[in-house]
Each structure stands twice: as C-alpha cells, then as structure tokens.
Amino acid sequence: MSDRDEVAYNNSNRAFLQAFLARSTLTYEEAKPILAAIFTAQEKRETLPEDVTEADFNAYIAAANHVISPYDLEIRSTYHQTSRTRIYALVNSTSDPITQLATSHSADEISFLKRVLDAMFEMHNTPRREVMAITSMQATHLAKPPVEQRGETQNGSTTQGSGGAGITMGQAERTMGAMVEEGWFEKSRKGYFNLSPRALMELRGWLMETYNDVGDEEEEEDGARVLKVKLCYACKEIITVGQRCPKRSCQCRLHDICTQNFFRVQKSKKCPLCKTDWTGNDFVGERAAAGTDKPQRRSGGGSNARATQMVVAEASSSGGEEPEAAGRAREGGGEQEEDDEDG
What we know:
- There is one protein chain.
- By secondary structure, the chain is mostly helical.
- The chain is built from 12 helices and 9 strands.
- The chain has helices at residues 11-23, 28-43, 54-68, 97-100, 107-123, 136-140, 169-181, 197-202, 204-211, 256-264, 293-317, 324-342; strands at 25-26, 73-79, 86-92, 134-135, 185-187, 192-195, 242-244, 253-254, 283-284.
- A 3-stranded antiparallel β-sheet has the order 1-3-2.
- Helix 11 (293-317) packs antiparallel against helix 12.
- The longest helix is centred in the last third of the chain and has 25 residues, at 293-317.
- The chain is globular.
C-alpha cells in the first residue's frame, strides 16, 4: 500500500480528518477500521483492518497536519500514563486552552472547571500526597465558588476562570460528564477524575505556568522550589499517575511502566537523583489518596487527649496524682503528633 503515500490530499484524507474531529482522540488500533473503510470505498475492493499498516496511518496523520497547520491546529501524540498506548489528539497550538472551552461551555462552567483544576493541582497535590485527581463528590462540592473568591494562584498570578457565580450540583455532575465525553478528563473505576492524555498535551504549558512556582530559583538556597506539576524522569512527560521517590524533598517521579524499563538497565533500584532506595510503594495519583490514615490518626489522637484530660480531672477531684496510664496516654499523643509532623 505504499502507493497511497504518493496520492495528493483527496477525499480519503478529508474523510479521515472528519473522523478524527468527531472523536478528538485516536489510537492506531482505533484508526485501523476507519482507514479500512476509507480504503474500501476509495479502491472499490474490500480492505480489512489488519491490512492497514502503521505507515498508512502515519501518512494520513502527516497529511492532516499539513492541511490544518495554517489554522493553528496540530495532531500531537503522547503515551497513556498507565497503558502506554500512543494517543493522538487534535490540539490548538496557540490559544489559551481555558479560552477554547468558551465555545461550548458557559462562563460559570469554565469557572467551575478552573476550580476543579485548582483542587487537583493544589488542594489534592501536597508533599504528603500527590493525588492530582478528585472524586465525583469532591467535584460537586466545587459547584459554588468559596465565599472569599480566589483570583490568584500560589505564585500570585491572576488566572482565567477563577470567578463566576457558580452552578448547581446537578450542573457540576453534567459538566464533569461532558469533560469525559469530550476527552478532557478520564474517570477511573474507583470514581476518580484526572486529566486525560489529550488534556495533558494541550494544557502542558498552561499547567506548568499556572501551578509551578517560577521565578524564585535565586531566593531558594536549599533547592526547595515548589513544583506542583512534575515530569517523569524517564520520558519527560507530565506525570499524574505513577511512582515517586520516598524522599519527599526529591523531585524524581516515574510512570509505572517507565520504572520497569528504567530499572531494568540499572545495577541497583535507587532513585536516579538522590540515590535513595526506590521502594515502589510511594505513589502519584489516586493510589496516593489511600494514604489518609495519618490525618485520621491525628483525629483519634485528639480523642485520646480528651480521654486523658477526663482521667486527670477525675484524679484531681479526688486529690490524687495523675495516674500512670494517663501519663502514658499523654506521652503517646505527643509522639503521634510528632510522627505526623515528620510524616
């Protein structure tokens, strides 16, 4: 089928581009039956999906890119963070992606989506737990903006979509569903929403500019620069699902599949940056949300403290000294708080 590469841009290319636009994202496997149908109609003989080669697919991608480039559009590709399937997406190469949503969503919905992104990359993205995903319940709670409206990011810059009067919880649910259908979000089996490969490609520059603390490198003497959006050490793509170095101050992150390839050629399984032993049990993404035991233990520690106070009060009222058990409980609560702070 090499003769297809020499054919000028024609109706088969237009049909492929229309099919791509209807889906917003495409993989090689998904494109095979589409191209097979196009080849069958073009050549007047049946072409099976397995007859479509990757060279055919790449040729049609290249032809489409050549035609859409004057309109500031481009078909880019990246690997899915978990399956490592190559995903192709049509992205706008110039304008602000948040502004692009205005063509199909209201100003209040865009403001809601900005609050969702803030929750993903600020509220649920801490040195203790880098979740960078939210549940449906957490998303619906963002339907209304806070009383004191935030109009700035952590580095003080004003961002689009921060304001708005808010939407209903039902509208929030429908908007999140629309974001999944449009290919901006993905929803996991456990009900977590995170950014899709298409969103990570198109929002890459905006995410790093908005959420990373830039311009303070000279002031940071200990190298503790704030990076909310990190790149995989191996593939250099944004990572929101994968593994992290056990040392919290270390910036090294690796996709799960990247760890397999990376450590396969290493003599020892150590962090490539700080040389700390790589456990494989420190996660990025929704698996990091499972580590919610420490805040719960802190709450439990408060209950123990109240119980201790009751024992001490009872001992004081009877003129006795503080019981040894109460002293141990008091010391245990202090140790728990220290553990939580050291984390």
